[in-house]
Amino acid sequence: MLPALGVRSPLLTVAVAAGFLLVLLFGFLAWHSPPSVQLPYYGSSSYQHPTSYKDILNVLYADLKPAPDQPSIDDGDGGKLELSARPRYRKGLGKEVLILDLDTRPLGSTEDYRNGQYNWRKINHVSGGVFNHHTYSVIHGYDYKFVQAPNFEDRHPTWIKPSALANELKKYKFIVFLDADATFRFLHLPIEWMLNYWDIQPHHSITMALDPWDPKEPQYNSDRFNRTYTNTGFMVVQNNKYTQEILRAWHECPEDTRYANCSEWKKPKFHEQSAFGEFVRYDYEKYIKELPCAEANGFPGVTVSNCQGRFIRHYWFDKSLVKRDFADNIMQALSLPIQRVFSENIGNIVVQTKENKIG
């Protein structure tokens, strides 16, 4: 039976009200949700619809990432880097790995953002380095933390490293720490591949690269036994039975209880790095892995000890290059799908004409 004209049906009233609420709901969600970016996922016939920067990064780097046990990779200079025949890590470690940044100061870019300002050209190298590290963690599914620690009253701020590493390591198998002026040269290369390449074994508690050493100035970057320091700007710290003991010995070194005269390195260069090189590593030789400077220290153009930063680059001097490294990595990932669009003529964007005349 139809309702009489001019009389409102209760069902109609409910339907209109429900429709109005749905419109409001979808309008609210559309207003508050981040914009959806549609990117083609090559290798399948479907499309992915990322809704966050993490999704976008995973799509961009999906085709670039090698497996942890891939036999060889491009070295970035036209050659190949090869793994040993029996790599230890064949699967990604995921959340068992923490990529860690440490500082006593907040990021300058944080305050800028809160003020509604963001300009890639103007942010400093510290933010550029931190962004590189965080992006690396997202691409490979590792955990990431930026730990702001309080300053010491009696020693240089870099002494925050041993205690922060010890506290965070309790929850992870590996911590990969980098100074803000150090970068992952290849954002697509997983740390597991590097662990295999460097043959980091279960008993290796801390892995660091050597500093450059120049025979013309042998006293520079050397300890009291003329042995080259290791650089604490990049460390792979593994959770094994000796690591906490090593970190505690390092942290307490300036108290002069276990190591006489270690307090000398509370503030003079190279602070905690000198203390580790002068004292701690001699008690724990078996558990410290020292990498060549060329592998994980320095940057292109450094001729001393060939410190070219093959995997990890550490810009001790021209720190502005930190941002360039990050930008080059992002452009490599972003340009690959664009290159494919043209080379595979996706969407028929390349049009070949037979003759040059107006039709």
TrEMBL record:
The UniProt entry's GO CC annotations, sorted and at most eight, read: Golgi membrane
| Keyword ATP-binding attributed | no
Which Pfam families has this protein been placed in? Glyco_transf_34
One example of the protein's molecular function in GO is:
glycosyltransferase activity
Tagged with keyword Membrane? yes
User: Which family, according to the similarity comment?
Assistant: Belongs to the glycosyltransferase 34 family.
Provide the alphabetized UniProt keywords: Glycosyltransferase, Membrane, Transferase, Transmembrane, Transmembrane helix
Q: What is the name attached to this protein's record?
A: Nucleotide-diphospho-sugar transferase domain-containing protein
Q: Which organism is it from?
A: Sporormia fimetaria CBS 119925
By its UniProt entry, which SUPFAM superfamilies does this protein fall under? Nucleotide-diphospho-sugar transferases
Output the superkingdom of the source species. Answer: Eukaryota
Q: Which residues form the signal peptide?
A: none
Which is a GO BP term held by this UniProt record? Answer: protein N-linked glycosylation
Q: Which residues cross the membrane?
A: 12-31
